[in-house]
Amino acid sequence: MPRDENARRRLSRSTPNGAVVAVLALAGLCSSFLFTLVVPIQARLPELLNASRDDTAWVVTSTLLAAAVITPIAGRLGDMYGKRRIVLVLLVVMIAGSVIAALSPGIVGLIVGRALQGAVVGVVPLGISIMRDVLHENRVDSAVALMSATLGVGGAVGLPISALVAESTDWHWLFWIAAALGAVVFLLVLWIVPVSVLRTAGRFDYAGAAGLAVGLIGVLLAVSRGNSWGWTSPLTLGLAAGGILVLLVWGWYELRIDEPLLDLRVAARRPVLLTNLASIAMGFALFTSNVSHPQILELPTATGVGLGLSLLAASLVVMPSGLVMMVLSPISGTLARTIGPRVLLVAGSASLIVAYGFSLMFSTEVWHFVVANILIGFGIGFGYAAMPMLIMRSVPPSETGASNGLNALARSLGTSTSAAVVGVVLATLSTGEGETRVPTAEAFDVSFALGLGAAVVALVLALLIPTRPASSERHPALPE
Asked: Distance between CA atoms of 114 and 118, rounded to whole angstroms?
């Protein structure tokens, strides 16, 4: 529409595009950094908080649940009320959560603070949608690839920083640093990122948001806490069945209202559906290494399996994956314009297959894990860059925020499922007594085989994605 085109032109000329991309990428780094924030102190939390291990697990679970619920809802709010405005709101919520966690002497405040921190995950799909709104068509792919890379870079680079802080000072400083980083990003977004004027008319679907939240919380609680509660316990089965039932009713409801939270008909388009399913598989493959590699690197050599590294040393071994993603981001954008994002997704899945195949054969030396993480960096770098590009080529401009939020949710489902499944494998295939039980070599081999299987699924799904969406379904960024 002419009015939308004029709005895009005004937005793209109001601020230097490079500055907008840099600020949004920094926001993405802030988001992914928060997921590794408590890793250095996770094993010590029962002692630090004088709480049981089951209770301290909520420090991680609360962030996961909040991120999964808020991300698709924030995308829709951004489409309706302005993406920049919602990014700022999410950053304020994250800062508040960081301050609460930093001031908290006990577990309740820390869980509340971590849940509020999880809100900031929504800035990544919103940032990608802002890039589509304000950038020239020729620059969108490279910018989206950079934003997608931050999902891995923030964690890979942030983990050594978190480990260094946790080892050298009081653990509360981790959250003061997060609050300061959030405040800096908030000011930069307020100053640099242009106000969103491309908005979707209508009313927000509060019932749909509530239904999605209840359904997701039920399913994700069952997945993330099933190992502690027991996979066949009434609580786990009840939450899983109840969550699935609520999501089915939610889907039926969304298809029958005029202004749904998520347009499931758009989400059901073949390229969108297959991309989201591939995102689940790729998220599973990514997090398999995040769970298994640090453990095998840090286990004592006396176990016959571990390499006996400190947390800081182990984080430096896995860091190359994030650095590779960052280096690949401009290359991914160029390749997407020349060979298409579908080929990138295929290449990323193939790289993950090679990475886990390598880990199955070689996992006894530090350099083996450096090589594996470099290959994982290629896989996730290409795959995560391709997925939002495929989504945006297949949905209308009014749906970019919500559709990117749904894609981010798909990745979260993959990572949370991976954490639960690999956790069960490592706990079940273990040796020793009580608290001294450690995973066996077989446990890690099974974990790597699961990562390999997920990568194969992602590859098959990527090959099934149409090479060119129908012209009626394509809505690329408009040129200047």
From this structure: 6
C-alpha to C-alpha distance for 286 and 106, rounded to whole angstroms: 32
- Angle at the Cα of 97 from the Cα atoms of 217 and 19, rounded to 5 degrees: 100
Question: In a 3-state reduction of DSSP, which class is residue 438?
Answer: strand
Q: Percentages helix, strand, coil for the chain, rounded to the nearest 5?
A: 80, 0, 20
E strand or H helix at 439: strand 438-439
In the predicted model, is pLDDT for residue 477 greater than 70?
Answer: no
For the chain, percent of residues with pLDDT exceeding 70: 91
Model pLDDT for residues 108-163, shown as the tens digit of each residue: 899 999 999 988 888 988 888 888 888 777 778 788 888 877 777 777 777 788 88
CA of residue 265 relative to chain centroid, distance: 24
How many distinct structural domains can be found in the chain? 2
**How far apart are the C-alpha atoms of 18 and 186, rounded to whole Å?**
18
Q: Which of 194, 162, 175, 63 is nearest to 117 (CA)?
A: 63
Same domain flag for 231 and 295: no
Shared domain for 232 and 270, answered yes or no, is no
How far, in Å, CA of 400 to CA of 196, rounded? 13
Asked if 120 and 30 touch (Cβ cutoff 8 Å), the reply is yes
In a domain, 155, yes or no: yes
- Residue in 205, 234, 260, 52 with CA at minimum distance from that of residue 226: 234
Q: Is residue 221 part of a domain?
A: yes
Beta strands in 296-395 (DSSP E): none
Write down the pTM of the prediction.
0.80
Question: What does the pLDDT read at residue 434?
Answer: 57
d(CA 367, CA 183): 38
49/375: higher pLDDT: 375
Indicate if the pLDDT at residue 403 is higher than 60: yes
Domain that holds residue 240: 205-260
181 in the same domain as 34:
yes
Mean pLDDT of the chain: 84
Q: Which of residues 199 and 387 earns the better pLDDT score? A: 387
**Best CA proximity match to 419, nearest among 282, 284, 244:** 284
d(CA 405, CA 80): 14
End-to-end CA distance of the chain: 14
CB 430 within 8 A of CB 99: no
Cβ atoms within 10 A of the Cβ of 138, count? 12
Q: Tokens 């590009």, residue? A: 389
Mean pLDDT of 92-99: 95
Query: Which residue has tokens 């030396």?
Result: 365
Question: Quick check: 119 and 66 in contact, CB under 8 A?
Answer: yes
| Structure tokens that stand for 251 in this block | 């889907």
Domain shared by 256 and 396, yes or no: no
Same domain, 385 and 456: yes
252 in the same domain as 185? no
